[in-house]
Design goal:
By secondary structure, the protein is of the alpha/beta class. It is 31% helix and 15% strand. The protein contains ten helices and 13 strands. The strands form three sheets. Strands 1-13-12-11-10-6-7-5-2 form a nine-stranded mixed beta sheet, with helices on both faces. Strands 3-4 form a two-stranded antiparallel sheet. Helix 3 packs antiparallel against helix 7.
């Protein structure tokens, strides 16, 4: 299904889920990780929106992307000026309608917003895990999300949904727990990273690792953090999330002062914007978590366990699929989504594919684009609970 209307919606498509209080689930059962290490216990912070019905058949799991977290919708307090990162998508009357669905969004293991991760104090050493926290994979996240579902009394998800790295989790869910997911919704994602994407991630990691304030990952003990490295990593990543059209329309070659200064300061508006985005990000996101998340991206390749055959990897899936791509997304191009679609079609699996014509690039999956939201609303309206 090809669509072409990329107009940003200016209307309020529904109400807010209101004031939300994050919750924490504590797990004391052993978790065996793909890297070969184990965690004896761990915590996941999460938020929920809507109410779980009597049969627990209306639950939707939202998986976040690289720099995301559990706060997907609503506000944390009355004067909060920053709603959740997918607030336009989740709520009463919105595409994922909380009058019908019970929505769960956790901060992934290894995160830095409340779930157990590198900044968590290791009880064995009484110091933060730092670089000693184990490398986490998408499959590990799916396993912890599966346990979170059971903790909440959910034995089958009506849908698992995510964009970018979140879409990889939705795909992995369909592979690892085929009987426990009815719809897998994969947005602006890919069955594995390209060499170019791995290269971008490596440059970002090297920016962090080479920062003198990184201190081998033990910067927590120095009361500092690798601000410069994390700022550069975010600046690089942010460029890949935007399209050339977006940068041209928003910034062009506009100068901050209107004249050239003939120095190395931020003269162009786009330079100033990227520096601001990078520095702001570095003030609230943990560098070790950034390293972990990019490695999880690099390692994702479910076909690798099936002789590099994606068709075989998807053979035992039972869910219905919605795959969405965006025309100007060069980080996760439509061709990468089509690889998933073609593998599903070869397996004769039920799949709907939408290629949205949108000029905003990879970040389109976060935006209130009318045709995209109309599609999501229609699809979720068809999900039986």
């Amino acid at each position: 299904m090809a669509t072409s209307d990329s107009t940003l919606s200016s209307r309020n498509d529904g109400g807010s889920v209101g004031i939300i209080k994050p919750q924490t689930a504590i797990f004391n059962d052993l978790l065996k990780l793909k890297c070969g290490r184990t965690l004896d216990n761990y915590e996941l912070i999460y938020e929920t929106y809507g109410e779980l019905n009597a049969t627990a058949s209306n639950a939707v799991l939202v998986c976040h992307a690289l720099s995301g977290h559990h706060h997907a919708a609503g506000l944390h307090y009355a004067s909060d000026q920053k709603p959740g990162w997918w607030d336009t998508m989740i709520g009463p009357g919105k595409p994922i309608d909380t009058r019908k669905f019970f929505v769960v969004c956790p901060n992934n293991l290894g995160g830095c917003h409340g779930s157990t991760g590198p900044s968590t104090v290791n009880l064995e050493t009484s110091t933060p895990f730092g670089p000693n926290f184990p490398i986490i994979t998408v499959a590990d996240w799916v396993e912890t999300q599966h346990r979170l579902g059971l903790y909440l009394g959910i034995h089958q998800w009506a849908a698992v949904i995510g964009g970018s790295l979140g879409g990889m989790q939705a795909l992995q869910w369909a592979i690892d727990y085929p009987g426990e997911i009815r719809h897998s919704i994969v947005i602006a994602s890919a069955p594995k990273l390209s060499a170019q994407n791995i290269a971008f991630n490596e440059i970002a990691r090297q920016a962090i690792l080479s920062d003198p304030d990184y201190h081998g990952g033990h910067y927590y003990l120095t009361h500092s953090y690798p601000r410069r490295g994390l700022t550069l990593a975010r600046m690089l990543g942010h460029v890949t999330y935007l399209s050339d059209y977006t940068m041209r329309e928003k910034f062009g070659r506009e100068l901050k002062s209107g004249t050239l200064n003939f120095d190395y300061g931020a003269e162009f508006q786009i330079e100033s914007y990227l520096r601001y985005q990078g520095e702001t990000f570095s003030s609230f996101f943990d560098a070790n978590t950034y390293l972990l998340m990019t490695k999880a991206l690099d390692y994702f390749d479910p076909a690798s366990e099936h002789n590099n055959n994606l068709c075989t990897a998807l053979q035992k899936t039972l869910s219905q699929f919605l795959i969405i791509s965006f025309s100007t997304d060069w980080r996760f191009s439509p061709e990468r989504s089509e690889e998933i679609v073609n593998a599903l079609l070869k397996n004769k699996k039920p799949v709907t594919y939408a290629a949205i014509d949108a000029p905003q690039g990879h970040d389109s999956f976060l935006l209130n684009i009318k045709r995209y939201h109309d599609l999501m609303r229609t699809y979720f309206n068809r999900i039986n609970i």
